[in-house]
Each structure stands twice: as C-alpha cells, then as structure tokens.
Write a structure and sequence with these properties.
- With 904 residues, this protein is an alpha+beta fold.
- Helix content is 17%, strand content 34%.
- The protein is built from 13 helices and 52 strands.
Length: 904
C-alpha cells in the first residue's frame, strides 16, 4: 500500500475532481460521526495537476495502488488513491475534512465579492468587485458564471493587478473574445466579461499566477422597483440551475386531463454550455463570500428599511438617508438579497432625471398615476393556476407554491371558473376544461394540489401552451397565475409563445424561491400584460394572495398613451406602454435634442372611462451630473430591440444592438469588455482552466435537480464539468442517464491519472511534431528552433532565504530535430530576469543580450546551467513571500521558463 495514503473513514458526499482543470477535492462530513485521523500537513499551495494534499482512500478505508483499480473507480493523481468514477469530472473543489473537531477548507479561485451601491431616489449606481486568487502551483484561467439584475446597464470594467489598473475596452463580442484568447495564449494577464442572458454573465480571467490575486471591478446602473410607497433593491447572488430542453414540441391540444404533444420541431438551446455552470453538492461549502454595502438616499424621510432575505445592519442618518451593511454572519452567496425601503407619507413625487452632454440629451421619467376611481362591477374571470412541478421546485419552493394556490382557490368568486395545470416534463390538468368555482370543486382543486410533488424536467413550454392554447370563454376574462422558479435556458421560446397565444388574457408570473430567474418572470408578465410577484422564503402566503387579488380586482389603466408637449423628445421607451396597476409607477426613458420647458401627458382608460394626467417638464440644455441616464435609455432601447428577436436573430437588429453597446460602453449579447495587461508575459500561454462552482440556491433541492449525489454521472473530458452538471433529461430528475457501456468507458478514461493524461497528450504533440517537415533553409535558426527548446527553472536553495545569495538552476532540453545553439553559461548579460511578486510588482534584472560563448545542444540532449545572483542582485527577495521568475532571451520560447519562488 502506498505509504502516502491517508485513511479517512465515514466520508460524506464528495464533489467531483476535475479531470484536467483542478486537483483538489472538497470532502465534508456534515456532522456525521467520524474517526478522527490527523492527515499529514498539506502544502499550502496544492498542485492543480497532482492534487498533492488530496490524499484519499476507497470507502472501506483501504488504500489502492494504480495497478489495482477496480471497475467504476478513477485515480486522484500520481501516487494518490482512487475514488468512485462519478466523483471525477472537470469542475473544481477543495479538501474539506474534520480533524480533531476542526474543519479544514480549501478555497476556489473566486475568493470574495464586494458590492457597493449608491441609491438615490429610484436609481441605483452599483460597483461590484470580484477578487480572484490562485491557490494552486500552476497558472490558471478562472471562469465564473454569475448573475446581475436583468435591467442593469453594465457600463465599465477594470482589472486591478496590485497597484496597476487596466481599464476594459468595449468591443464586438467576437473581437473581444479573439483579443482575450490571443492574450491568454501568449501568456498575458487578461479579463473578459460576456453577457449570456440579460441576467447571466461570464467573467474569464486568464493567467493568474500562483499565490496572486486579481480584482475585477464592474459598474452598472438600474432603476428600482416601486409599489405603494416601497422601493426595492434586489441583488442576485447565484445563477440557478437551468433546465435545457431537447427539441421543443408543437402546439398542444387538450385530451381529457392530459395535454399530448404534437409534431416535434427543431429546437434546443445553442449556448446551453455557457449558462450551466457546475454546482456544489449540499455537503460542500465554497470559501467564496460576499460583502454588500448600500448608501440609501431616499430624498424624503424613510419610514422603514428592512431585508426579508438577509440579516442586515441599518444605520439611519439625517435627511432621508441610511447606510445598510450585510451582516458578517450572512454572507453565503446562495440567494438574492432584497432590500425594501418604505418612505414616509402617502404622496410620492414624480421624478425626472435628465442628462445632456452638449450633443445628446436623455431623460428618465418616473410617473405615479393616481388611479383613484371607484371600481365598477367585478368582471367574471377564468382563473388558470399553473404550477411548475419540475425537480428544481422540490422541497421548499414546491410547498410554497402549493400553499399559494390553496389560498388563491379559497378566494375565487362564485361566478368565476378555474383550472389547475401542472407541468414538468409534460403538462396535465385538473379537468379537460375550466370548472365552476363551487365549494365542491374548490375542495376538489385543493385535493389535487395536495398530491402534487416536484420531479422531472422543466418543459415550461408545455405549461404555457396548456394555459393559453385552449379557446377563451367570451363571458370571462382569463387570468393566468404562473408559479415557477424560471430555471430554464430557452427563455426566448417561452416569450415568443406567450406573445403568440396570450390573446386577451392576463398572465401574472409568480417567482417562487430564493434566487429565481427574474429576467424571465418579468418578461413573461410584460408579454402577458399582467404583473410579476416574487414570493420569498419566509413571506406571508396570505399577504401575497391578497396582493394578487387586490391587483386583479382593482381598476387598472389600459390603452395607455404618452404625449410630449412643447419639448422635442424622441425614441421614448417602452414603445408599447403596458397596462398600469394601482400603486405601480410608469417609467419612461427617452432622448431629446434641445432643452426647454414642456409637459408630458399620460392618458388611458379605467373601467371603460377616459383618464389623463399631465406633468410639467424642465429639461436642461446642458447637465453633466447624471451621465447614467444615457446608459438607462440605451439599456431600455436594447431590451426593446431584443424583444423583436424572440423568434430568432435579425441581422439589422443585431447591428443596432451592437452599435448601441459600443457607443454607450455597455455589455450586451453582442458586445463585451476585454482588458489585457500587455507589459509582460507571465506564463507559457497554457493556463489550466478552472470553472468556479456555484452554491445551490437556498431551498433548492440538489437531489431534485441532479438526482442522488452518488448516482450523478460527471461529464468527463469537458472543460468545467462538475458533479452538479447534467444533460437535463426531461421526464426525470435532471440527471445524465449514461448507459452502462458509456459508464465503463468513462471509468477507464478517468482511471488514467492526471499526470498520465498530460504525458499522453504531450506525447501526441511530440508525435505530431516529429511528422512535421523540416524548416526551410532560409528561416533563421531561432525562429525554427525556439519552440523546440524546453526550459525548466528552479531555485537553490528551496525555499530561498531573504537577504541571501540565490542560484537559479536552468535545465534546457532540445526537443527539436536539428542542433540548437545556446549560451555556454548564464549571466545577466546573456539573460534578462523578470521578477513579479504576489502583488504584481515588477523588477527587471540583466540585459538579455546574446552571449558570445555558445554551445551546441543536439536533438534529445539536455544541459543544466546555473545563474548565480549576489545578495545585491537578489535584493528583490528582501521580503518573505511568493515571487514569480521568468528568464527572457531571444533564443528562449516566450513564457516557457517561469518558476515560482518562495522566500522565507
């Protein structure tokens, strides 16, 4: 048995080890009784390739050698133990064991997120700072999928390396990706911010040196939600697991209580891989935490400022201001942060924000119509309750949704009809058609709700078609109450179907859960001419149902028109003003050419009667204080253009969105921010990619989404897979249903140690190189042979001592097919030494001129040379820490001779 094996008994569930991406496992006992075994003290900077401090055994506690791999097992690394094959994928992790009652935790590349928000009236300016670190011994590329509010106008990105700040450039998406990949592959530090959905973004950071940190700062602005005197600030913290449906189905037709799919058509989600990040099993805790600070200026007295989701510290200040801090004990990023500010008094002033830079003017109007007419007779309604019963709704979300519908059923009017539809992989209903709201039928409906449970995929399109696709009752207004977490990837297909089928119905979307897909739910209610409500854990079910019925019973403004009088205003958004419900404001973004005084007139109908209201405007001819107003208009314009493409991309519209993003420095689906540190090369351009795994949203069942942890199949060989990734097969929990043959093949593949896999790939590259034709005679020696020299650099002693002389040992191998000329000895005349510390400070030593004395290195030969530095030349080592040394010369391949040096 390998003497390095450490037996750890009674291990709880384990996150997947990355095949080529990371070499740490996060193992937790979740409070189970554990035989306490003190493992060897691990190296503080574990190897990404060998998993040096992840020493495990099989579940019986018996160590297994490399030649003794049983079926269904894979090896952790060179000289390490084996683990079940379904624990080996391509995600990230860290070792997490209990030793003498102490929990030992390893961090992932994303270390910390800080959110600083300035709220003024109904607008929030937000700065998000993400700190990425590299705990491994190899240079890495970190890839992090994260959420932002879907209406946020992201207008800036900077990359901070120690004291150096690199501001991001806004480019077309393909061009930004090309710049980033070229920088990454050439060994430069680089960052790329891309939008996958209006509320899902990907941050990539390349060539993070071991032991170093990089800060990425994003800036965005958004308008706050408002209803009945309460402003709401919401910051999403985690992307929920998205269900990716296969080819979607044609129109559904009712058949008894079941809706049967028609002819399949082509479909799917092309970018599914980019919106399905890895997830951590419930027994694993990421070291990533979040800090949120909000400075709130309401402009008038604040009556109350609270959070229904988190523990916060609120410090009231004078003049309608307050400071809010997320409590240090509530910083796990697994649910949306919601802050609600109730202002004093009943009157809310209409607000107008304006900005004019001398060329273009922009305005944002927040109008609060007084819909105080007495409602007439209540119109009979056809109440359709639609419940998402997919796997992600298992547990708390499902229980909450069922309770909401039970309360709603007991509040239907006697002359209403109702229907209950459930959907997961398919849709089914309480009855073939809506039934009268008699006490007997209501009891029947409650009994139907009671027996529902969560499981299977999220074929939301089935629920949409079932609720909107059957003939309308001419004597009743159809009201659809759609309850879901919105965890899907085919949003455009859903919105297109609502637009096609909604008719005269009103669709009210209810977001149930701690981190729902607000982009989808907002757009569903917008396309359905209804409203959106979010039911957060711990909220009062009775209050939410009363709020829903209060909306549909009270009069609301229809046929809304906005007219500008006396001012030259254009491109006012939204083009189609939605119906307004009592207590909700009308928000309009617009452009104007010249300032001046004028009016805006809003008109419509309430319960069939004409209604209008006017507001005086005074638009400045030049105002530089609110540049974010231009971003708000551009973001609203982009959102409007995106709505035109729910059935597919339109080239002219794509170009309009692209031009808006470039002109206003906004991240869009077609424009991205890219930042490159061009001063130096820090790696060989082959960083190991580490996808940052996410914590499951609070209350969402991991087993309901992915199945039992021990049964989840890892996606071997794909960059960034993890135990919590699946192919989202509909009709069952979102678990990858791998056949036995595929499982055996995957086990055999994973049985190769990471080091063996690297050697196999290197050998394949060398085989390809050996088949390459020899260089042409006219090519220079260095250009033809530079990439054939392999350089290894280490220090003597290791670790080095501060203030002491240093010797660098350089081994050079000729992997080419012809002779190479290299220096006979090394000194600071023949080599330039670049030193970067963990704070990204840089020192350059030597000139790197060609040495006069040369030696010939034949194919396959190696030679070891030494570069000795005096205490004066090694003065950069005066402070203990981590340093990165790179040798540079004309005859050396760029970035291939870097070493990490630890100084004590």
């Amino acid at each position: 048995m390998n003497t390095r094996h450490q037996r750890i008994r009674n291990m709880a569930r384990l996150g997947t080890l990355p095949g080529l991406a990371a070499g740490l496992l996060l193992l937790a006992t979740s409070g189970q009784s554990t035989e306490r075994v003190r493992p060897p003290v691990p190296d503080p900077t574990p190897s990404l390739l060998t998993g040096q401090d992840a020493i495990l055994t099989d579940r019986s506690g018996t160590g297994l050698g490399q030649d003794e791999l049983p079926p269904g097992r894979c090896e952790l690394g060179i000289g390490q133990d084996t683990v079940p094959a379904d624990w080996c994928g391509t995600g990230t992790g860290g070792l997490h064991v209990v030793v003498d009652g102490q929990t030992v935790q390893r961090d992932f590349p994303l270390k910390h997120t800080r959110v600083d928000a300035q709220v003024s009236g109904g607008v929030a300016n937000v700065v998000v700072t993400q700190t990425f670190t590299n705990p491994y011994t190899e240079t890495i590329e970190a890839v992090y999928v994260f959420p932002l509010p879907h209406e946020a106008a992201v207008s800036d990105m900077t990359m901070q390396l120690g004291e150096r700040t690199v501001r991001g450039l806004i480019e077309r998406r393909d061009e930004a990706r090309r710049i980033y990949e070229n920088a990454r592959n050439s060994g430069h530090v680089a960052a790329l911010l891309e939008q996958e959905r209006p509320n899902i973004f990907t941050q990539s950071v390349a060539n993070i040196l071991p032991g170093s940190e990089i800060e990425i700062t994003l800036v965005y602005v958004e308008t706050l939600d408002y209803e009945r005197g309460v402003y709401e600030f919401a910051y999403p913290m985690v992307v929920g697991p998205r269900f990716i449906p296969p080819a979607s189905q044609a129109q559904l037709v009712p058949a008894g209580g079941e809706w049967v799919s028609g002819v399949p058509r082509s479909g799917g989600v092309r970018d599914a891989e980019r919106i399905t990040p890895p997830y951590l099993p419930p027994s694993i805790r990421s070291g990533h935490d979040i800090e949120v600070n909000v400075e709130w200026d309401a402009g008038i007295a604040i009556a109350d400022l609270t959070s229904p989701t988190h523990r916060v510290d609120v410090e009231p200040k004078k003049g309608g201001r307050a400071s809010v801090r997320l409590h240090p004990n509530d910083r796990i990023p697994n649910k949306d942060l919601v802050l609600r500010c109730r202002v004093a008094g009943d009157e809310v002033q209409t607000g107008v924000l304006a900005y004019h830079n001398g060329d273009d003017g922009y305005l944002t109007l927040l109008l609060h119509p007084k819909l105080n007419l007495t409602p007439g007779e209540v119109t009979p309604k056809e109440m359709i309750f639609v419940l998402d019963c997919s796997g992600s709704m298992s547990g708390e979300p499902m229980a909450a949704a069922k309770s909401l519908v039970r309360h709603a059923l007991r509040n239907v009017n006697a002359n209403d009809t109702f229907q209950i539809i459930r959907f997961s992989s398919q849709a089914s209903g309480l009855a073939p058609a809506p039934i009268a709201a008699t006490p007997e039928n209501v009891a029947r409906g409650v009994a139907y709700i009671d027996q529902l449970s969560g499981g299977g995929g999220t074929m939301m399109i089935e629920g949409i078609k079932a609720s909107l696709g059957f003939p309308e009752d001419p004597d009743r207004l159809r009201m659809v109450m759609f309850l879901t977490d919105g965890y899907i990837g085919n949003e455009d297909e859903i919105l297109a179907e609502i637009r096609r089928s909604v008719g005269s119905a009103r669709l009210f979307s209810f977001g149930v859960g701690s981190s729902v897909n607000r982009f989808l739910l907002d757009r569903m209610s917008e396309e359905g001419r209804g409203e959106v409500q979010y039911f957060l854990p711990g909220s009062s079910i009775g209050d939410e149902v009363a709020r829903f019925y209060g909306r549909i019973r009270n009069p609301y403004l229809t046929d809304v028109r906005v007219e500008w009088v006396g001012v030259d205003v254009e491109d006012a958004l939204p083009h189609r003003v939605p119906d307004l419900f009592d207590g909700r404001p009308l928000t309009v973004h617009a452009r104007y050419a010249k300032g001046g005084r004028g009016k805006v007139r809003v008109s419509g109908r309430i319960a069939g009667r004409a209604w209008s209201e006017e507001v005086t405007l005074n638009l400045p001819k030049r105002e530089s204080g609110n540049p974010a107003v231009g971003s708000l208009w551009a973001r609203a314009r982009i959102a409007g253009l995106e709505k035109e493409m729910v059935r597919g991309e339109i080239p002219d519209v794509v170009e309009q969105i692209t031009e808006l993003g470039l002109r206003h420095r906004l991240v869009t689906k077609y424009t991205s921010f890219v930042a490159v540190e061009e001063r130096w090369i820090v790696s060989d351009g082959r960083p190991k990619t580490v996808r940052v795994p996410l914590t499951m949203p609070e209350g969402v069942s991991f087993e309901g989404v992915f199945g039992e942890v021990d049964e989840v199949e890892a996606q071997l060989g794909s960059a960034g897979g993890f135990v919590g990734r699946s192919r989202n097969v509909p009709g069952s929990p979102m678990v990858s249903e791998v056949k036995k043959e595929a499982r055996v093949k995957a086990s055999r593949e994973s049985a190769l140690s990471i080091g063996d896999r690297d050697r196999r790939e290197n050998g394949a590259r060398q085989d390809r190189a050996s088949d390459a034709p020899p260089p042409r005679p006219e090519e220079s020696l260095f250009s033809s042979l530079g990439s054939a020299l392999r350089v290894e650099l280490r220090s003597n002693p290791t670790p080095a001592r501060a203030g002491a002389p240093l010797e660098l040992v350089v081994t050079i191998t000729n992997d080419g097919r012809t002779d190479a000329s290299i220096p006979a000895s090394l000194d600071l005349d023949s080599i330039r030494l670049r030193v970067v510390d963990s704070k990204w400070n840089e020192v350059l030593l030597g000139s790197g001129r060609q040495s006069r004395a040369l030696q010939v290195l034949r194919p396959g030969e190696s030679v070891t040379l030494r570069l000795r530095l005096t205490p004066g030349e090694a003065a950069f080592l005066a402070t203990p820490g981590t340093y990165h040394l790179t040798l540079e010369a004309a005859w050396l391949p760029a970035g291939t001779s870097r070493a990490t040096l630890r100084v004590r």
